[in-house]
Every structure is written in C-alpha cells, then in structure tokens.
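Hi there,

I know you've been waiting on this one. I reran it after we fixed the sequence typo, so this is the corrected version. Both the input and the resulting structure follow.
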Amino acid sequence: MPNTPLKTELFNFKRHDIAQVVAIEQQLYNDLAYPELLFYQAVHQWPSSQFICRDADNILAYAMYAPAEKANTLWLMSAAVKPNCQGRGVGTKLLSDSLRSLDEQGTTSILLSVAPNNAAAVSVYEKLGFEVIETAEDYLGQGQHRLIMQRKITDKDSL
C-alpha cells in the first residue's frame, strides 16, 4: 500500500473504477463474488450510497449500501478491502467516512450481516458502533449463519 493519503469518495460511473471494484470482489469471494452487473446497477440506482477508498492511483476498498424496507435505513450489502491492504485501517476509514456521509444525507440506521466466525470484521463493526441484534441460522443458505448487526447513526427516527 503506497504511503499516499487515503481518500474516501462516492463511487462513480467510470468503467475502470468498476473494473477495479469487481477485481477486489473476485479476489476475496471467487465463485461467490457479486457480478459486475450488480455494481453498475448499484451506482446507477443508489449513487449517493456507494463508496470507494483510494490512494493516488488505485481503489483499495469499496462499500455498497442499499435501501432497507424501513425509511432512512440502509443495508451494508458488501464492504471489501484488497487483500494486501487489509489490517491497515483502510476498511475502518472507508466505513467511518461513509457512515458520516450517510448521516449527513439523513440515514438513521445501517444494518449488515456478517459471518459469526469473521472476528476481524465483527471487531471493526463493533468499534464503529454496530451491535448484534440477531443471530440468523441458515441466513444465506444451509449452514450459512450470520450475525445481523445494526448501527443507529442518529436518533432522528425517534423524534
């Protein structure tokens, strides 16, 4: 990871940027990776809730949020950091910056699901204020259990 400052920004529609995000997704998830088409759809349908973290030259991480059923609530569908950048604060910066931006947009709550054995991700989410609200058995199919976590960004929905 270069020693240049990291920058979190909204994801844009440039094909090269989408290709970099898809490459991160495929490196981490192989056959279970989201298809390229989903990233195109996300940046077109929810442009204010797709984020990337980059150095001067490359995308190092992304976060994809989508609307939940409840107003002003989003799901963190996916967040991923390039393997050679993990454990260096890139994901924490991306999520912290994106949560701040979403708060400014009026989002009041973020939901996510995470594998219970993914201790590193659970730790980052907890440091950012997420709490486990449910343990969901077979959430993504047989044997694919998940913790459902929530972070209330503000108390706007209780006013």
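Quick highlight: The mean pLDDT is 90.

Best,
R. S.
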